Amino acid sequence: RPAASFDTVAARPWPADEPFARDLLAAFTRRPRSISPKWFYDAEGSRLFDRICELPEYYPTRTERAILQAHAREMADVIGPGAELVEFGAGSCDKVRLILDELREPRCFRPVDISAAHLQAAAAGLRRDYPGLDVQPLAADYTQRLLLPAPEPGVRRVGFFPGSTIGNFTPEEALAFLRGAAELLRGGGLLLGVDLVKDPQRLHAAYNDRQGVTAAFNLNLLARANRELGTRFDLSAFDHYAFYEPRLQRIEMHLVSRCRQDVRLGGTAVEIEEGETLHTESSHKYTLDGLGALALQAGFRPGPAWLDEERWFCVQWLAA
Ligand code: AVJ
């Protein structure tokens, strides 16, 4: 291969206006370096996340599903008849089906998700399988204030936020989110899925699976940048590193540089030292008491909590 071939490839123009480009540049120019985990989820990242959910070490998805399966009737009773259901970050809308199957005369279902394409497909599937249900998808970022029409008089609005997605928020962000949700859901409530504090070894294993799927998921952030932004990250120059920090009750995921390296982000040259990290995700774990206190502070009244036998995961009802 002629040595010139590399240099004659015209560099792709840096898409400076794209939100991912802006966030990635900001991530590499602040200290400590960190980026929002929302950028994991392109098509490839979503596929890898689906594989994570099937891993033997990754207990949250199957544990929450078992809790929903075992207690959906009781949950539907707490929600009550004729409710409007709003799911935050609905994705493929598969968990909510366990609730919908037991819910009496739901008035309407509003799945909210940033990915419009994903949402339309999920809504079509729900309309097919629940012919009487009024499905009203909303393509929006649920961390911002949601603009929803006021429910008809007498209709209780109930939120569904499964998957311990709330764990991606810091406690301060979780409080802000819950305050907004309490306001939106006043008179109804929130059904919240939360991963619980447990043996650190178990937590560690869930984010360090033997097949390396979580590592691929983490590294996909840089692979995605290479695909979408034309960066030239060498994926073999970074290690996946995930650990539990008990004092902050959270898993931290990082990409650690294996060597000193220079990367170009458009017009900006970034120097990365050997051992330097990009913090890509935090996944906060809660105790039942900590969750209850946070919910109270946000203006909810904690009600029943459903747990698995091992007490690894919890689906908590919060009355608004
Ligand atoms: C989707 C945020 C709940 O934190 O466990 C899984 C994402 N990251 N493995 C989590 C994730 C690495 C997941 N959440």
From TrEMBL:
Which keywords does this chain's UniProt record carry?
Answer: Methyltransferase, Transferase
* E.C. number(s) listed in UniProt: 2.1.1.44
Q: Which domain of life is it from?
A: Bacteria
Biological process terms in GO annotation: methylation
Is this entry keyworded Nucleus? no
Record-annotated Histidine-specific methyltransferase SAM-dependent domain positions: 21-319
Q: Which SUPFAM superfamilies match?
A: S-adenosyl-L-methionine-dependent methyltransferases
Give GO MF terms, alphabetically: L-histidine N(alpha)-methyltransferase activity
What is this protein called in UniProt? L-histidine N(Alpha)-methyltransferase
